[in-house]
Give the backbone structure.
Amino acid sequence: MGNFIMVLQFANNGSLRDYLQSKQQEGVFKNSWSEIIQIAKEIIFGLKHLHEKEIIHENLHSKNILMNDGKPLIADFGTSNMAAYVDPQYFIHYGKEVERNERSDIYSLGVLLWELTSGTPPFSGLTNDYTIAIRISRGDREEMIPGTLQGYADIYKNCWSFEPENRPKLNDILSDLDRLSTEISVEFIINNRI
């Protein structure tokens, strides 16, 4: 197999995690719903493109979504994981060969959609990946941030479904986000629990 070079665009806003942290002031996260939905849709478009090419990301989290001029770019393919974003099926069947697929990426996407409303990483109070893995395996998930649009919360909660076959398809998520974007009655989400 020959060598190959991958050329990536410079991301001038750092990672999605950095970008969300830049929206925090004095312990309060504030972001507009229009931007949250736009970033969510662009991540989904990128993931959809990968899945159409039969590529499973397997490592989707807020440190490997890079932001350039406020637009997300998916990067860092591989199998090193941040436990809070990993499909619980992987932990339940640990030690057995668990094939990750599109549904695994959709679980991770759900965690990212929640993070877009919180401004913080999931399970940020826990520093041990083992503890996070146990909690996810038990069915624990982050709580909805007060002020989150119910339709948006329904989307990420469906992505978090324990059973992979119950997770929505990317096209359905996009349709739900399009519908939701016409129904927004509040301009911002504010999380003061950081």
Q: What stands out?
A: The chain has one domain: 16-191. The CA atoms of residues 33 and 178 lie 12 Å apart.
